[in-house]
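Notebook entry, structure prediction.
Reason for the run: the old model in the group folder had no record of what sequence produced it. Starting over properly, with the input documented here first.
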Amino acid sequence: MNSGEASGYADAEFVSGIGRVALGDLLRRAARRMGDKPAVIDENASISYAELDAAASRFSNLLIERGIKPGARVVTLCGNTIDYIKVIYGIHKAAIVWVPINTMLATSDMEYIVDHVDAELIVVDASLASTPAIASLLEKTDRSVLYVDADFNDLLNGFSSDEQQLAICERDLALIMYTSGTTSRPKGAMHCHLSVFSGALCNIGEWSVSRDDRILIILPMFHVAAHALFTTFLLAGATIVLQKGFDPAKSLAAIERERITFFVGLPMMYAGMLDHPRKASTDLSSLRFCVYSMAPMAKTLIQRLVVEFCSNFALTSGQTEIYPITVMFRPEQQLQRFGNYWGESAMIDDLGIMDDEGNLLPRGEIGEIVHRGPNVMLGYYRDPEATAEVRRFGWHHTGDLGMIDPDGQLIFVDRKKDIIKSGGENVPSAKVEEVLLRHPAIANAAVIGVPHARWEEAIVGCVQLKPGAHTDEAELIAHCRGLLGGFEVPKAIEILEKIPTTATSKLRKVELRELFIDRFAEQS
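New structure, fully documented this time:
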């Protein structure tokens, strides 16, 4: 037996050919099965599986002819369109690493990501190029830029639709998604072809996805949740309907017009549609399964939704670092338990509760939520220390505290890391505190998250002024808006005489949360 056979592979051909797992293959295989069936519909057009596969191959050949080699990084700044999916799968087919950037980030974070991955190309949706943060990035960058504009398809037609035969290994790096951590700089979660493919297969099984499904995707495609959705539904041969941004009336109209069977949204999205005047006259009978994510659902809201919207609701969770989904609170459990129930582990994941010494805890004890499985990231890009920290004791550490109840259901307790979850985005409090401390009037700052009906948590900045200094909430929020992404800007700023600290000068944020826990109660 040779060493290749001992490792499970007969030879390199198994990795690059007969037994390979590669994301570009996913689209080609679906196209052979589905052919002329609509693959994706956006607000302007529709495209079949065969057309989408051919266009992705054309973009792949464009990248190859530009001299971009396998393993190089291509950054994208795009909205939810058919053309964006052509770009993504063209990158995958070319064995290049896709690096999506959150279009709502501040310019400084965009610049950091572009430089950190040493991007060879920035692909920009022309409709977004004039937004202040992106325009500033494009003005400063020395990287090559390709615009997805009205002439994009004419550009693609100049390249062959024949797919290049490139060697791709299942553990090759496929994408880097940057996520906010506890530090002021985002970290790049690296996923290989296998982690994405195994996650998509898991989703098909857990949600019973078929080629007859039609999903409406509103979540931005730079986010891991949206990527998981369109990868899953393309793999299944279903039809995807894209919408740019959430508007309750537009979403209701799309569900009825496109006969949507599957919908994923935040609790605030469901609340917005449920209470919209158009809801009463909208035919929602096509819906068979709805997923909510990022936040638990209020008891009164889920009770209404299963009667007035769709009878099958499920909560699913994941992280950028663990290709979604990781846990699922199933439809039959929705009206049996209420609170911070996250459900049970998805079929490809091990779920555990661990103490600080690496011991797995029994049911009923609180510790850190940890996972193992093929959908866990390879690590953080160019950050071996953070990678080692997050995979201690052979498990991926989520930074969330929880417990498993006697029935095997995961209950979320709190966050171990100082992260605020606002509107589905992770916001590191340290990052906002750093920006507040740049203001000349601020002596000390503590940033907390407090309950909010729409955002799950609203960011509140608590500041202490320097002796003799003067400022107000409006000025401080304007200061933050100039240095942070829109979703990172505090919803309120409280000016305090003194911020409570421990004997070792650590911020006592528990006291601040208790003090301002009802800050947005009237809006709720």
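Summary: Confidence is low (pLDDT under 50) at residues 1-12.
The old model has been moved to the deprecated folder.
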